[in-house]
Specification:
The chain is of the alpha/beta class. Helix content is about 30%, strand content about 20%. Strands 1, 2, 3, 4, 5, 6, 17 and 18 form an 8-stranded mixed sheet that branches. A hairpin with a 3-residue loop joins β5 and β6. α1 packs parallel to α11 and α11 packs parallel to α13. The chain starts with 9 loop residues before the first strand and ends with a strand. The chain binds NADP nicotinamide-adenine-dinucleotide phosphate (NAP). The site of NADP nicotinamide-adenine-dinucleotide phosphate has 26 residues, from α4.
Length: about 500
């Protein structure tokens, strides 16, 4: 006889105390699941907002929407918050919702194994300790493993080198020759901040990005007072931000007129800020807007035109002890190299050594490609839920909004598991296959699949990071989805 709930068995073990792990814990506790353990590799909560502390770090989604709908903050300083204020928000949530007693910090999950007979996960932390949980919730996010390109000589560099997500604040940048490799969303935020201190700063750009104006501003005291006093005012503001962003979604369908108008907006921004035709040419992308992530900045183009900044578009050939050598043979001396080269975005939870039904690992299950059901469940891994998993990223709206929909979907399943006394539930291969066939067909009309090279895609060219539709489309579908897609295994 298998018991559905054992003493000492956790209701859920959550991997990661970032914004999705915290959200899952809040919703689980609200539904009466108290036996929770949140395992976090770093020394605090906040995930990406704890890791990405580079100068100028901030979010390009307005904070009234980039925050939980049920936990508004009326006194955001700016429309687009800086890293510190966002981290403070998640710290506040951890305290307010009494999650700190569930945290196991400075600890890595090193493996997890599912047992069909009991319907329980045994999760190993730090390579030694074992924890048993009914549900395994993976809140790793898509952007947590820094990626370094395979450039010859990378380790031979005699100066100091670090990744943007592991910023070395102890390294004095003033008066140094700095080589910034990568010109993505992170780089456009720190380059304007560090350029004034550098003796000489060289930006190595492999591909230009479409950049839209940021137009940030501080909220006035009156606005903040109104947000605090009148919840309807704050809600209207949040809805307004969501609606504006959502209205951009048609621009992500290939060949749409909205795509054309958004491209014009980006071109006008470039023309307004960069007068030199040669520099403009170097900064003009040759792919559809939205295919790679659209960047938002008012100070990146001006920073590139400073007297001590150079933009190099010749590809990096190798690193030598004293700097960077390009394929064209140009040598750029550097004291510091900053790798703004993004993240390993294609493996999702696979590096965690998770073994599901029959001992099959996630890496084996996904050897032909990463697939999931609404990014949350994947067949063969019962009682396992991923947040910000495969095909849940967006190009146009707030990830926090998407995460709330994922957690609502997950809660529907976990509550059904409890109420129907299920030992486990597992998405059927047929349902997952049907869903992914539809998703990839829908993706075909989307700019993400229009031919550029981006972190949205796996090596085979399949878009595995992004959702193909609107954020409202995702919410509607996950609300309608139910247990029909699942094999339900009852407890004896
Ligand atoms: P990223 O957007 O993936 O950019 C990586 C950069 O490194 C790209 O310019 C890439 O060039 C370049 N690169 C990679 N390998 C290279 C090589 N061998 N030689 C030269 N350049 C190379 O990474 P990120 O800037 O860290 O941003 C990652 C994601 O984090 C963003 O897309 C966004 O979703 C999120 N983010 C958000 C914000 C925000 O809200 N404001 C801020 C930062 C990050 P190619 O384009 O040619 O590949």
């Amino acid at each position: 006889m298998v018991k559905t709930v054992d003493a000492g068995v956790l209701d859920a073990l959550i991997v990661g105390a970032g914004m999705s792990g915290l959200l899952a814990a809040i919703k689980l506790r609200a539904a009466g699941f108290e036996r929770l353990l949140i395992v976090e590799k770093s020394d605090g909560v906040g995930g990406t907002w704890r890791d990405n502390v580079y100068p100028g770090s901030g979010c390009d989604v307005p904070s009234h929407l980039y925050s939980y709908s049920f936990e508004p903050r009326p006194d955001w300083t700016y429309v687009f918050s800086r890293q510190k204020e966002i981290l403070d928000y998640f710290e506040h949530c951890a305290t307010k919702y009494d999650l700190r007693r569930h945290l196991l910090l400075n600890t890595r999950v090193t493996g997890a194994r599912f047992d069909e007979a009991s319907g329980l996960w045994t999760v190993t932390t730090g390579g030694r300790r074992k924890h048993v949980a009914r549900n395994l919730i993976v809140g790793l996010g898509q952007l947590n493993v820094p990626a370094f390109p395979d450039i010859p000589g990378r380790d031979s560099f005699a100066g100091i080198a670090f990744h943007s997500a592991r910023w070395r604040h102890d390294v004095e940048l003033a008066g140094k020759n700095i080589a910034c490799i990568g010109a993505g969303a992170s780089a456009v935020q720190y380059i304007p901040e560090i350029a004034p201190q550098a003796k000489w700063l060289t930006v190595f750009q492999r591909t230009p990005n479409w950049i839209l104006p940021r137009k940030d501003r501080a909220y006035s005291d009156l606005e903040k007072r109104w947000f605090a006093r009148y919840p309807w005012f704050r809600k209207v503001h949040r809805f307004h931000i969501w609606a504006i962003l959502e209205s951009r979604f048609p621009a992500f369908r290939t060949g749409s007129w909205r795509s054309w108008t958004m491209k014009r907006m980006a071109q006008r921004h470039l023309e307004a800020q960069v007068a030199d035709p040669e520099l403009r040419r170097k900064l003009t992308p040759d792919y559809a807007i939205g295919c790679k992530r659209i960047l938002v900045s008012d100070d990146y183009y001006p920073a590139l035109q400073r007297g001590n900044v150079d933009l190099v578009t010749d590809l990096v050939a190798r690193i030598e002890p004293d700097g960077v050598v390009t394929r064209g043979g140009r040598r750029v001396k550097a004291d510091v190299i900053i790798w703004g080269t993004g993240f390993d975005t294609t493996r999702f939870a696979a590096p965690l050594a998770i073994a599901g039904r029959g001992g099959r690992t996630l890496a084996q299950a996904w050897s032909g490609g990463v697939e999931a059901m609404y990014g949350v469940t994947t067949t063969g891994f019962p009682n396992m839920f991923m947040l910000y998993g495969p095909n849940t990223n967006l190009g146009h709206n707030s990830i926090v909004y998407m995460m709330e929909a994922q957690v609502a979907y997950m809660m529907k399943l976990i509550e059904a598991q409890r109420d129907r006394k299920l030992r486990w539930l597992d998405v059927t291969p047929e349902a997952q296959e049907r869903f992914n066939r539809w998703l990839q067909q829908d993706m075909a009309g989307n700019v993400f699949a229009s031919g550029c090279d981006s972190w949205y895609m796996s090596a085979s060219g399949k878009v595995t990071a992004n959702w193909s539709g609107s954020s409202w489309g995702y919410v509607k579908r996950t609300r309608a989805a139910g247990l029909d897609d699942y094999t339900l295994e009852k407890a004896d």
